[in-house]
Amino acid sequence: MSRPCIITVAITGAVPKKEDNPAVPVTPSEQVESTHEAYEAGASLVHIHVRNEDQSPGSDPEKFRQVQEGVRKYCPGMIVQFSTGGRGRSLAERGAMLSLRPDMASLATGSVNFPTSIYENPPSFIDELASEMLKFDVKPEVEIFDVAMLYNAVSLVKRGLLAAPAHVQFVMGIPNALPARRQLLDFLISELEELLPGATWTAAGVGRHQFIVNQWCLELGGHCRTGLEDNIKFDRYRLAQSNAELVQKIVDIAGRHHRYPAAPDQARKILKLRNAA
């Protein structure tokens, strides 16, 4: 029997810059247009970063508001997920847009070394950010960059800072973090099922690992993430024509694994989200 797969499209990210890859949408209007194309291709969830005028990672709530309003207008029912990622942004800035009440937001549950920097998430900040998400009824997507982060998520659930059923994303292929290995993904899924029964999961492969991780997710019963944010390597960029093209690649092979792209209303039910605004 064929089962639905939620396809997340990560449209922009913190890198690359537009001059490195002209396909990357940067302004709010570009981001809405690119999201709409991906929605038409089969994506039901959009992961959003905004950029400053100099294209550095942004935290302007007004830009998040503009993108969210555009997505809700042109992509009915699509799940809106804000990034709270920290590279180049202070801890205070990272949750400043949660009052806009997106459907979801990312929540990294630990710190990790990246190739040239530390993605810093101190325990007190994780608790504070999780509390803000509870306050505004925003469902976290727990970002797992290292194995310990899964167990940290279990602790959040036990302490009432993360509501069950949790939704987690395993991020694979970033140097110094989780490698893109099928055996490792099998282990992580097994631990998730034992420690957080009923949780849903997806996985993201970075750069050259992106499409093979998509295939593992389809095969193993998880959900998929793609998009220009992940379609890079840390030493050079892997260009794609559009976010929609990357979504279409998943749609084209889903049937081989008895899967099909979840419609937005199906995705909301799977993730136990409130109805679309």
Rg from alpha-carbon coordinates: 17 Å
Q: Indicate how many domains the architecture comprises.
A: 1
CATH-derived architecture: Alpha-Beta Barrel
In DSSP terms (H or I, runs of 4 or more residues), the helix count works out at: 9
Distance from first to last alpha carbon:
31 Å
Following the backbone from N to C, one meets helices and strands in this order, namely EEHEHEHEEEHEHEHEHEHEH
What global shape is seen?
A: globular
List segments where confidence is low: pLDDT < 50 over at least 5 consecutive residues: none
The CATH homologous superfamily is called Aldolase class I
Mean pLDDT: 93
Task: Trace the largest sheet across and list its strands.
Answer: 2-3-4-5-8-9-10-11
Helix content: 25-40%
CATH topology: TIM Barrel
Q: How would you characterize the largest beta sheet?
A: 8 strands, parallel, barrel
Strand content: 15-25%
Q: What is the top-level CATH class?
A: Alpha Beta
Structural class: alpha/beta
Number of strands: 12
Structure notes:
This protein has one domain (3-270): Alpha-Beta Barrel (TIM Barrel), CATH 3.20.20.70. It is α/β, with parallel strands linked by helices. It is built from nine helices and twelve strands. 36% of the residues lie in helices and 18% in strands. It starts with a strand and ends in a 7-residue tail after the last helix.
